[in-house]
Structures are given as structure tokens and as C-alpha cells.
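Supplementary Methods. Inverse-folding protocol.

Structures were first reduced to a C-alpha cell string of length 151. This string, shown here, constituted the complete conditioning input.
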């Protein structure tokens, strides 16, 4: 007998529409960045996106993003931000633009290229987090307060 996987990647997430994801993402888009920020990515139509992460060990604990005002791009980024917490880095790296397009229904064909931009920005943040771990640094924002006390 085999037990079902209880990892965050295998949990069932409800399918949300672009409008619902945009509404949630519009608020998250204004939040302060998380501890590890990825480099901003720019698409062909000058849309930009960048992700920031909070991580513990090899898992993502929280996701934030900054995206230009394209509703589809914000919806794709919000979907990533909602499903990624709890993922291990190895699982998060496997997310593709095709998976993203399949997971968010109702996106017009001309706007589906925003999924590539969202995935590229997310992978940039994953790369930044992995680089910090390889250097042996803690990804804890409180370290800034200990090293640089207020006058």
C-alpha cells in the first residue's frame, strides 16, 4: 500500500480565474519585498516582473512579487505566489510556463506569453536563494539588525 504524497506540490489547489488572481495579486504587488530578491525580468512589451522569497532550509516559506500593471502578468505571478510556499527548491524549479498556462484558465492566447516572463522572474529569485545558501549565508533579515545596529 502506498501513501499519498503530502508535500505542498501535490496538494490540490482550486482553479481560480484571471480576475480573482488579479484582485489578490494587485494587493500583494504593493507589499514590501521578502528577504531574498531575484533580478527583475523584462518582456518584449516592456512588462516587468520580479519575485522575492522567504526561505527556511530548502523550502520556500513566503513569496512576494513586483509586476508591471498587466492584469494577466499579475494573475500569473499571484498564482505562483499562492502555490509556491511549502515547495522545496528542486520542485519549484520544475514549474514551467506551460504548467502555468494550464493552471490559469481564461487567459486570451495573445497574453499567454506573460507566463514565460513570470516563470523567468520566479526562477531568478530561486537562483538568488540557492546562491545565498551555497555561500553559507543565512537568509534571515534579522541579521541586518545585528550587524548594523541603529545609532
Amino acid at each position: 500500500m502506498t501513501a499519498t504524497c503530502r508535500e505542498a506540490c501535490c496538494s490540490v489547489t482550486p482553479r481560480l480565474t484571471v480576475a480573482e488572481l488579479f484582485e489578490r495579486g494587485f494587493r500583494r504587488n504593493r507589499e514590501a519585498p521578502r528577504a531574498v530578491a531575484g533580478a527583475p525580468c523584462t518582456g518584449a512589451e516592456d512588462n516587468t516582473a520580479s519575485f522575492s522569497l522567504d526561505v527556511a532550509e530548502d523550502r520556500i516559506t513566503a513569496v512576494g512579487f513586483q509586476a508591471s500593471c498587466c492584469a494577466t502578468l499579475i494573475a500569473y505571478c499571484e498564482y505562483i505566489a499562492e502555490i509556491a510556499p511549502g515547495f522545496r527548491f528542486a520542485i519549484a524549479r520544475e514549474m514551467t510556463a506551460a504548467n502555468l498556462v494550464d493552471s490559469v484558465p481564461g487567459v486570451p492566447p495573445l497574453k499567454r506569453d506573460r507566463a514565460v516572463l513570470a516563470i523567468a522572474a520566479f526562477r531568478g529569485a530561486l537562483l538568488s536563494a540557492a546562491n545565498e545558501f551555497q555561500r553559507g549565508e543565512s537568509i534571515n533579515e534579522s541579521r541586518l539588525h545585528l550587524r548594523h545596529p541603529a545609532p
